[in-house]
Amino acid sequence: MSRAIVIDRPGSHRLVDTAVPEPGPGEVRVRVAAAGICMSDREVYDGHRDLAYVHYPVVPGHEWAGTVEAVGEGVDAALVGRKTVAEGFRSCGVCARCRYGETSLCTGGYAETGFTEPGAFADHLLVPVRLLHPLHDAADLRAAALIEPAAVVTAAVRAGRPRPGERVAVLGAGTLGLLAVQLLAATSPAELTVIDPRATRAEQAVRFGATEHLTPEQTAGKGDFDLVVETAGAPSTAADACLLARRGGRVVLTGMFAPGARGIDPVHLALSQLEIRSVFGAPSSAWSEAVRAFGLGLISPAPLITHTFPLERFADAMALVGDGDPATGKVLLHP
After folding, report:
1. Which residues have CB under 8 Å from 131's CB, separation 6+?
2. Does one domain contain both 141 and 7?
3. What CATH number is associated with residue 83?
4. Measured on CA atoms in the order 124, 125, 129, 133, is the torsion positive or negative?
């Protein structure tokens, strides 16, 4: 048998027993070792995610790592036993954007593991083999469950094009922000400032390579950063990020903003000649880079994990996500 958490509708979930799924042609079955819970999963549970981006009932779980347990027709049997992660977006691979390498901009229709396709809050998961990114044999699968947010951060850092000697700010010190600090520290910035109201997160950011921590109140009039990477997704942080950048600077928005977030001042945008990019998910190339960075130790997600729960305690785990407690970092499910 195989267990899975099913969210039937907002606010309603159950732990179900099903037959172990059999991989079809071009698929593999993964035994899930660990799966992370993020705010997107909380939005699915609370019913706050746009219905164009979730199909109920759904098995959530898009941040995960595991071991290939079986392969379907046409898949190399040598993959059995390999530790792995896999891309979440089920990109079509044939549209113009996919052919250009921008798989996160696929025009073939939105499909994503854990939102429209069964996810990893389960003992087993089926995924197309073309989305796999095998890991080293010695990889820590608990830490590897955070490669998905690391891939998003990798896409953001690539979009920001950091150069050695620049002044860089990271707005927000949650999972995305702290992973961004690790990657940006490897680019040799002159300054790497983390902006977050939580002192405990600031201490962790410094251990990961930040040179300075500021609270939002301490940033007034401090608009001189070459690059600002926004990771918080709070109502004001898109606008705040633009005010932190110097004239001609670069801003990358990675937070998931809810309707009603404060808009960016078009007058300031025009006069400051800012370059602004947004990131939603990660293309295949960013996944490859994140997996390589993980293997080289350039990103070390394990210290971000503060809680691990079995599937049976899904409700307890979900309650911690977004509870505002600064002591709560990444919460994992361990099937």
Report:
1. 86, 87, 90
2. yes
3. 3.90.180.10
4. negative
Between the CA of residue 331 and those of 54, 99, 320, 323, what are the distances in Å? 21, 35, 8, 12
Q: Provide the token pair at 75.
A: 């898949």
Q: What letter would DSSP give residue 80? A: T
Indicate whether 26 and 94 sit together in one domain: yes
Structural domain that includes position 311: 2-146+301-333
CA dist list (Å): 95 to 92, 108, 110, 113, 127:
7, 6, 13, 20, 20
72 and 27 in contact (C-beta within 8 Å)? yes
Write down the pLDDT at residue 299: 95
How many domains is the chain built from?
Answer: 2
Predicted TM-score (pTM) of this structure: 0.95
What's the pLDDT at 257? 87
Q: Calculate the alpha carbon distances from 146 to 81, 151, 163, 236, 282 in Å.
A: 20, 9, 26, 26, 13
In this structure, the answer to whether residues 83 and 52 fall within a common structural domain is yes
Gap between the Cα atoms of 190 and 165, Å rounded: 4
Q: Which residues pair with 209 in a beta bridge?
A: none
The pLDDT assigned to 264 comes to: 93
Residue 259 has pLDDT above 90, yes or no: no
Spell out a b/e string for 74-110, using b for 16 or more CB atoms within 10 Å of the CB, else e.
ebeeebeebbbbbbbbbbeeebebbeeebbbbbeeeb
Amino acid of residue 164: P
Read off the CATH number of the domain in which 241 is found: 3.40.50.720
Query: Per the domain annotation, does 40 fall within a domain?
Result: yes
- Residue 78 inside a domain? The answer is yes
The whole-angstrom separation of Cα 109 and Cα 127 is 17
pLDDT at 256: 86
130 and 52 share one domain: yes
In sequence order, what are the beta bridge partners of 204?
A: none
Q: Read off the pLDDT of residues 33-54 as tens digits, 9 standing for 90 and up.
A: 999 999 999 999 999 998 999 9
Closest by CA position to 253, among listed 305, 304, 218, 269? 269
